[in-house]
Amino acid sequence: MNEYIDTACPKCGELYLPGDLFCSKCGYEFNLVEKNENEKQYIGKNSQYYSNKFFEMRVVHKDTSWNWAAFLFPAYWCIYRKMYFYGFGLLLLQYVLKFAFLFGNIMNVAIGIAFGVYANHIYMQHVEQLVDKHQVLEEDQKKKHINQYGGVNLVALIAVIVGTFSLAVAAVLLGFEIYSLC
Ligand SMILES: [Zn+2]
Question: Quick one: which of 19, 43, 108, 131 has the most CB atoms within 10 Å?
Answer without folding.
Answer: 43
